[in-house]
Design goal:
This protein has 104 residues and is mainly α. It has helices at 12-22, 28-49, 79-88; strands at 92-93, 96-97. It has a domain at 12-49: Orthogonal Bundle (Histone, subunit A). The chain has a two-stranded antiparallel sheet.
């Protein structure tokens, strides 16, 4: 268990600020409890940061799967096919389709 002196990393004002961001109301007892618990979490993270990982290979994917991507390329056909599409459009303005306004 962590003492109140050790848990001074997160004070009550900071807990209140976090609660406001999360839009939750806390009692004074809850604020004190979360001050200690959040500080304990930060202390644990500090312990993890002290672990020597210099000899550990960095990985971003553990399953061996790879993303398959394709290069960006235009799929628009010839100018004639574009013109045919625009001829069939109910409304157009220049090289754009005109659509009804949905927001005021």
């Amino acid at each position: 268990m962590i003492s109140k002196e050790q848990a001074s990393r997160i004070n009550l004002e900071q807990v209140e600020y976090i609660a406001r961001l999360a839009k939750i109301e806390l009692t004074e007892k809850e604020k004190e409890k979360f001050s200690i618990e959040l500080s304990s979490i930060l202390d644990y993270i500090d312990k993890l940061n002290q672990v020597d990982t210099s000899k550990i290979e960095q990985i971003s994917q553990v399953t061996g799967l790879e993303n398959k991507t394709r290069g960006d390329e235009s799929r628009v056909g010839s100018r004639e096919s574009r013109d045919k599409i625009f001829e069939e459009a109910p409304a157009k303005k220049g090289d754009y389709f005109k659509v009804p306004k949905i927001l005021e």
